[in-house]
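Q: Please design a sequence for this.
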């Protein structure tokens, strides 16, 4: 049995971007926005997108709560390095996945 490979920090940023940009839009505000290209997958752009979606009036409250937590963690990753940054990115990703699973 081989151990599973851990995502890199860059891959976590890509995953955060992808969970927010699902075709058909699970977040009403995201469906109204153009999708960023892969060249625009930066941590800064993901943080900005998380805050924008969390604060959008069309985002349901329960989803906005989890997106706010994801934004806070991703924001903390901007000023962190190494293992701390990786931890913040992983937590942000977990909150984003939880937001996606909230019934709305």
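A: Design:
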């Amino acid at each position: 049995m081989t151990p599973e490979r851990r995502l890199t920090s860059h891959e976590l940023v890509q995953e955060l971007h992808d969970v927010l940009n699902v075709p058909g839009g699970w977040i009403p505000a995201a469906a109204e926005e153009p999708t960023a290209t892969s060249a625009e997958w930066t941590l800064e752009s993901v943080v900005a997108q998380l805050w924008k979606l969390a604060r959008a009036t069309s985002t349901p409250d329960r989803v906005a709560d989890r997106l706010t937590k994801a934004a806070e963690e991703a924001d903390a990753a901007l000023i962190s390095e190494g293992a701390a940054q990786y931890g913040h990115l992983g937590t942000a990703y977990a909150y984003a996945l939880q937001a996606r699973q909230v019934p709305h």
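Q: Thanks. Anything notable?
A: Residues 82-101 form the longest helix (20 residues). The two ends are 40 Å apart (CA to CA).
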